[in-house]
Amino acid sequence: MTNRPFLYLAPIRGITDCLFRNLLQHHFGGFDQAVAPFINPQPHSNFDPRQLRDLQPEENMALPVVPQFLHTEAEGLLALAHRLHDLGYEHLNWNLGCPAPMVTRKRRGSGLLPYPDAIASFLDHILPRLPMQLSIKTRLGLNHPDELAGLLPRLNDYPLKEIIIHTRLGKQLYKGPTDPKSFGHCLELSRHILVYNGDITDIATWSSLQRQFPTVQRWMVGRGALADPFLARVIKGEQFSAEQRATMLINFHQDLYTGYKESLAGPSHLLGRMKQIWFYLAASFPGQQKIWKKIKKANSEEHYLATVDKVLHSSLSTTKGPEPPLFP
Fold it and tell me: How far apart are CA 181 and CA 167, in angstroms?
């Protein structure tokens, strides 16, 4: 057994698209694979090829990616799986964890966890016809940890690649404490490889979890990596000086901004996407709340760039003295 952890980048809808994944890996590295944000259900007869733009293999060379689906309609899912297999994918992930109320009301995502018979029936139907390995990303339950605890022994009968467990309930959304203790109970109940996910935000947290679960080798990091893009490499034992951090953050932002300016339709979409990213990234800088409020108020590209220039310029000047404007 290797002591080197295998790190997944979590799927975060609206942020971890192909461009973001590639640039995060290019500038910071540390991740071994990413799970892509889920593809919406599509009737198999009306499947839209545009759903696969983010998953074109030639666009995902920097970081291997696992497609994810939210389907509960078997024929639609199988049509998608065969399309993905034709593109070369050998691993597909089923999202049984999405906590969004508009999803759970339809008994998708974590909304399906209270219905283990439906989950088993779906697996019975698709697995004999699925042309690739299947993993599951889930939560401890929708309303109570007993939901996943009751499901896991039944899943032992299925040839799953692994099960990724976000250690919250669906009803919590992304708020409140995680529940590592219930994850430990899951380890006792499952014969599958389990992946820990949930609030790995710094090296101290990961080290504590690693000591608590010494047999777990696979981990998923999401919002923690958005707030601290160095986290994956720090987990793997690397360190960075303040000057290195400042320079790498500046280069990452410049490439990200340029990439979205070229690919998104107009300034409003561009600013909206960058603000989504800064909601998390502001945590990498002192005075994060003030920084986020200033960036949030930016109502034009010029206003945004001037604000970000001050933030990034300040982080650099504290390490190596005055610098010319980052966005001349």
Answer: 9
